[in-house]
Amino acid sequence: MPYISNTDRDRREILDRIGAKDFDELIASIPPKLRMNKPLALDNPLSEMEISTKIKRKTCQNICAGSANSFLGAGVYDHFIPAAVDSIVSRPEFFTAYTPYQAEVSQGTLQFIYEFQTMICELTGMEIANASMYDGASAIAEAILMAVRKNRLMKAILPATLHPEYVKVIKVYTEGIGVELITAPAKNGRIDLAALEALMDDSIGSVVVQSPNFFGNLEDTKALDAIIHRQAKCLLIACVDPISLAVLSSPAEYNADIVVGEGQALGNSMFMGGPLFGFFATKLDMARQMPGRIVGGTLDKEGKRAYALTLQAREQHIRREKATSNICSNESLCTLAAVVYMSLMGREGMKEVAIQSAQKAHYAASELCKLKGIGMAYPDAPFFKEFVVITPKPAAQIISAMLPRNIYPGVDMAVYGMPNALMIAVTEKKSKADIDELVNAMREVCNV
Amino acid sequence: MSKTIFEYSTRGRMGVTLPKRELEIPLEDMFGAEQLRANPIRLPEVSELDVMRHYIMLSHKNHFIEKGLYPLGSCTMKYNPKLHESLVRHTCFANLHPYQHEDTLQGALELLYELQQDLAEISGMAQVTLQPVAGAQGEFAGIKIIAAYHHAKGNNHKTKIIIPDSAHGTNPATCHLVGFEVVELKSNPDGRCDINTLRGLVDENTAGFMLTNPNTLGLFENQIEEIAEIMHSVDALVYMDGANLNALMGIVQPGKIGFDVMHFNLHKTFSTPHGGGGPGCGPVGVVEKLVPYLPVPMIAKNDSGYYLDYSNQVTSIGKVHTYYGNFAIQVRAYIYIKMLGALGLRRVSENAILNANYLMKLLKPYYHIQHEEYCMHEFVMDGTKQKKEQGISTLDIAKRLLDKGYHAPTIYFPLIIPEAMMVEPTETESIDSMNAFAEAMIEIARECKDTPDMLHEAPLCTPVRRVDDVRAVKVLDPIFQIQD
Q1: pLDDT over threshold 90, residue A57
Q2: C-beta atoms of A96 and B274 within 8 A
Q3: Domain-wise residue ranges, chain A
Q4: Is the pLDDT of residue B1 over 60?
Q5: Residue B225 in contact with residue A31, Cβ under 8 Å?
Q6: What is the pLDDT of residues A326-356, one digit of tens each?
Q7: Does pTM surpass 0.80?
Q8: Whole-angstrom Cα distance, residue B326 to residue B316?
């Protein structure tokens, strides 16, 4: 039997040693009528060789974005991952370890989390970060809940420019506590500043600002800071693309109080959208209200530098229903990938990735807009690595027509109320030739 | 003392090569000067070799399953097959995008569909969602489903969830997050739910009951039928925390014995790695009447193939994850189930139970055990004898065990057993490895008598000595101060 060490003889020996005549004696506490009287209806077991073939066959039925010419984004991005990342992440020393509760035999995990927290604070300009949340969406939800703990104000504003799938998750996470979510409308692909200003009063506890936003556009963060912080208690929750922070303002520069975001782009493969990981950072005065695990530096008995989980009195295993969050398992191994990725990239590499992604995206946008009938959906908004174009045909038709050519031209915006629009993401992995191929295909498919 | 990666940094060094720029567009032209960052990000500037040495050096400071037995109770630290890793990483799965056209995702969707079906069969539930990414998120989705059920019936007075005092901390934390009030149920002297007390707690306002089965003492809650009857009599639902499902596969189907909702921990029962704290995966199974409330999308099948099914959108609780959950973890669990089949999964549970009872038998003469009956896949012993006789705490014993090359059991949990040590060897350990572990524990029991001072000093041989976690709170140091 795979992965089970006991032989039939061992089994007998165990039963003899315990003093039980058979296995059923051990489960005597399960009333017989509750037990199954037939085997589970599952497929016959496969050997390692057979399952390998089966899985490889299944993967052949997929055409992955990695081998197609893909411009899909909307929260999950195909950035380059150096080979050394996988080499570290696939070490059993890291991936078969448990949560680092026994600090003396978990210093490896604890230290990489400490380094991760440091890097996140360096990117965001914050003072303390946690060890991760499930994804960007749940990180925003937890940020809103933390704002409620901080200022006791039950209203939060979500902009219409926030990722629509994030909004769904946030709603599910915050409705139980009784948070009222208010939508700030968009204008030209960015938050409508005047409309937001009209919504603001002293009952608003937090405002979420995603920049680059769902559509790829950069919000006017300085103006938003002024509008939001005119209310003394209101917290600005910034949701950011970590890659963009190599060149764009750190949220601290526009006085964000809590900074969260989706971290997948940092060294993690797309895996059809999971695992992802959320990062969560804030200022020190809110440390005790934070959700999730936090690692802190300390000393061992001999005064040697060491690391441990800290501020655990916030967490569910200590505080139970009074905990700041119910999170236990997080996405630790994904943050190891992120920390190794950021180390390899370093100061200049991260900047280069950000610049090349943005330049290529801008090139793609300007080339596409040279085609008749194609134009930017939000011509006045600055964007980072993703943008929306209006197409002369329904996006669904364009996507289908490009399938045989192995080009994934972008995300169909129909589900977001724009049937004739494509959202196109470009990372540093795209070459100029890849982009030209998209432009040519678009010309042919749209007959323009 | 080990340096942080930042301390290896040298200006101008780089760990990666990127392609030359093909285009040149100034940043200001793209974003406007007001959007640009004022200061450079001070990430470390190191070579690939620096990075490899540093993180491999760190890896050497970890305990992990391949190094030695990892008897953490309720965590099910079984061996994680290497086949899963290689198939997950080195196939096209890694590069699938969630918004690809469904025609290009058929292999992946078929796999997920089959996994939904297999988990439904294993649990005896009508349907399973794979979306929640952790046990606690599975609990959250499950309790939201209970809330949605009552809400749909207009029963908004149902505000209370009953939870035994032996429950995991995530249970009450989850109920609070969903907006329920938590009512604690005391365990009886047998270590199980006290039915009479339960009757007294249940009323029209009871929305549900959350039970771990087997419970955290490693005992099967044998009155589950009666419990379910009591709950169902007031239209309250019964939730099973599936953390301990490793004891039940092919033996009991929770959906057939009174449970209405349950979550699985694929990172426990189905051998996906814990990753130093995640990613996990916490699918949720429900009985027929709760299917309309499952998160969207489900994975469904029709004549033209597999697809993401949003048909329950209106009644659904919504979404708990941006996309479809932790796909890379779901793939591993799928492979595991396909390799073991019905007989294999039953053998997993049988051997988990055999091993736990064997280890309990070996340790019983040396450590106090409150509930001496046969256990399921784990048991709880405690350090009260050592505490009383030699003044040695469970923490001391746990730390000494680290010296001997083992991870400690789950300690000080469940809360109802003083000085608790919760031990779960799992089915992947052999008699030999359990003998060796027992020998280490017995040696420690001896050391408690012979050299008690050493026990207070433990651990002596780990990468660092006992870590001062009080200082970690008092002198909060959550980030390294980078020197420019």
Answers
A1: no
A2: yes
A3: 8-51, 83-340, 346-445
A4: no
A5: yes
A6: 999 999 999 999 999 999 999 999 999 999 9
A7: yes
A8: 20
